[in-house]
Amino acid sequence: MVMVQLRTAGEVLAEFERLLDEVDPVRSGLDAGTRLEWVRRARHVQGRVNTLAALLTAEADRVHASERATGTPMASWLGMGEPLSRREAASAVHQARALAAHPEVADAAARGEVGVGQARAMTRLLDGLAPQLQPEQQAHAETFLLGLAGQLDSDQLSKAGPRVLAEVAPKEADELAETTLQRQAEAAQRARSLRLFREGGSVRFEGSLPRVDGELLISLLDVHGERLRRTAIESRDPASLGPTPEQRRADALVSLLRSAAGAKPQPGLGVARVLVKLDYDALRRSAAGAGLIGEDEPLSAGELRQLCCDAELVPVVLGGASEVLDVGRKQRLVTSAIRTALILRDGGCAFPGCDIRPALCEAHHVTPWWEGGRTSLSNCVLLCHSHHGLVEPNRCGLRDQWQVRWASGGLPEFIPPARIDPERKPLQSRRHSATGRPPQGAPPGTTSLAGAA
User: Fold this and answer.
1) Mean of the pLDDT values across residues 171-187?
2) What whole-number distance in Å separates Cα of residue 227 and Cα of residue 248?
3) Gap between the Cα atoms of 228 and 241, Å rounded
4) Is residue 102's pLDDT more than 90?
5) Residue 270 CB: number of other CB atoms within 10 A?
């Protein structure tokens, strides 16, 4: 075994900064593979350095180093030497304290075994669960989460509370999960805010909404944004096709505001459709969070009732009486029932690494319509606008495109072009590969879905 001579953090950081001064800025002759390798390595190093910075911040804060040396709290001291706002400095100190409070997570992040986002998601989840758990259960939860980090990204880890509780407190898991969600909902209600700032010709705003209200806002913005995008395409207006995603969302908010200003308020007007999966065995275990926000997004029973009261409820009883999910060659566009089934199965864009919501996705024919493909659940997959173009087959066969096919269990998987991966190993969306479960809703070949609107 090779013994590594350990050096102080100050020595390593000074040496690292000196080496950065020696980086050759000319990189024009690099091949694509080397560029991507360097990007990955730089991001890995960045994560480890960020973790070290957080731990050093927490340690200095714990011994009141800034007060002793300068008479200033840690957050204020950070702002004195860097162009940080008060909010950014306070957030840095808060995140540093949270990371240092969980030594196993901090050590894994410092070694580069988990990313900064994953570490932050785990510490937030652990802090939220802590009031319901005994000290030994909290330690078990931290170890269990670190095991999940190898297969879940930060978003999925932040929603892993039910899995953690089922592991560390199986007998009380349902009750504890409901209590945790209720506490989160109450905290979000207390933290709700909206601040408006007039700056020149603009009005800037920031704030926070409880999750149910925030999801309703996102759904409405998505609906208005998609309508504006399709209108621009149909009118062939090139000036309307260039905005950034942030600009499109701003346009959608303006459209939403104008619609509200010009319409007489009516109960239930403009609400989002909700798909609730009624798998009766799972329903007996827990009715909270059944498909209202996303596959892994938990909701308390109170939040679920609130959302169902305000939204169009579409019950989808798995395995019951049916609506047809295969219209063959009768029409090219998917029916409402087929799209409902696609949303249940794919949960959004099915392309690996993409988390675009279902409202912004299109139904892609795996076997193209122009090649005789059927309009059916077994031949369609949800894709966002960008990834739809990557897998859309070319009639002339001149492009080296991604390909989509069905894996075992009826889940879509994507085969990269040879120029990206010579071995062409198939990839799956994290929603599917992380759970290893069959699709929610009817699998390819099934022609029934009860209650789909």
Assistant:
1) 81
2) 11
3) 10
4) yes
5) 15
Question: Distance between CA 412 and CA 410 in Å, rounded?
Answer: 7
SS3 content of the chain, % helix, strand, coil (to 5): 55, 10, 35
pTM comes to 0.56
Same domain? 105 vs 126: yes
**Judgement on whether residues 248 and 289 belong to the same structural domain of the protein:** no
Burial of 364 (0-12, 13-18, 19+ CB in 10 A): buried
For residue range 43-84, what is the model confidence (pLDDT) as tens digits?
Answer: 999 999 999 999 999 999 999 999 999 888 999 899 888 888
Cα end-to-end distance, the chain, whole Å: 65
Amino acid symbol at 445:
G
Same domain, yes or no: 89 and 139: yes
- Has residue 214 been placed in a domain? yes
Q: Does 6 fall in a domain?
A: no
Residue 325 lies in a domain: no
Query: What pLDDT, in 10s, does the model give residues 104-160?
Result: 999 999 999 999 899 999 999 999 888 888 999 999 999 999 999 988 899 899 888
Rounded to whole angstroms, the Cα distance separating 91 from 85 reads 10
Integer CA distances (angstroms), 274 to 7, 184, 252, 253, in order: 56, 22, 21, 21
Q: List, as one string, the DSSP characters of 275-318.
A: EEE--HHHHHH--TTSSSS-TT----HHHHHHHHHHSEEEEEBT
Distance CA 76, CA 66 (A): 9
Distances (CA, A) of 216 to 213, 278, 354, 358, 453: 5, 22, 21, 14, 20
Question: Which residues span the domain enclosing 364?
Answer: 336-433
191 within domain boundaries: no
User: What is the tally of structural domains in the chain?
Assistant: 4
Q: How far apart are CA 352 and CA 376, in angstroms?
A: 22
Length of the chain in residues, anyone?
A: 453
- CA-derived radius of gyration, the chain: 25
Residue type for position 417: P
